[in-house]
Amino acid sequence: MGALHLDEKNFETEVNKSTTPVLVDFWAEWCGPCKMIAPIIDQLSTELQGKMKVAKVNVDEAPELAGKFNVMSIPTLLIFKGGQPVDQIVGAMPKDKLLTKLQAYL
User: Fold this and answer.
1) DSSP for 4-16?
2) Which of 3, 31, 54, 78 is catalytic?
3) Which of 34, 37, 44, 74 is catalytic?
4) DSSP letters for 29-97
5) Which of 19, 37, 21 is nearest to 74 (CA)?
6) Which residues contact 84 (CB under 8 A, 6 or more apart)?
7) Is the sign of the CA dihedral 24, 44, 33, 98 positive or negative?
8) Taking each helix axis from N to C terminus, what angle separates 95-103 and 32-47, rounded to the nearest 10 degrees?
9) What would you measure as the largest C-alpha separation in the chain, in angstroms?
10) What average pLDDT score do residues 46-65 get?
11) Cα(66)–Cα(101) distance, rounded to whole angstroms?
12) pLDDT, tens digit, for every residue of 12-28?
């Protein structure tokens, strides 16, 4: 299925009104480390289905969202609960380490 693609139009509905925690990957096409974690993000969207929503924001297409959450470098992963960012991970990381970090929010 893959991660949900977010922009200014659907962010409110998909993240702020979500009943489950949301992992949002801020990325760009030209970013090497972003491409390294892209398959991991897609795997997590399937593995965590029903427990956590997994989504992506292309910072080139939605710079206002990146600015709103002070995303300075990419990839940046933000974890939202109740519409608020509760944790941030900057840079690529192995899937097992990422899953360990996410467990606290599931």
Assistant:
1) EEE-TTTHIIIII
2) 31
3) 34
4) TT-HHHHHHHHHHHHHHHHTTTT-EEEEEETTT-HHHHHHTT--SSSEEEEEETTEEEEEEES---HHH
5) 37
6) none
7) positive
8) 50
9) 32
10) 96
11) 22
12) 999 999 999 999 999 99
CA angle 54, 29, 74 (to 5 degrees): 65
Residue 59's Cβ-count burial label (10 Å; 0-12, 13-18, 19+) is buried
Q: Work out the pLDDT band at 77, boundaries 50, 70, 90.
A: very high
Is 34 known to be catalytic?
A: yes
Active site residue 104: no
Alpha carbon 60 to its chain centroid, in Å, reads: 15
Element holding 102 (H helix, E strand): helix 95-103
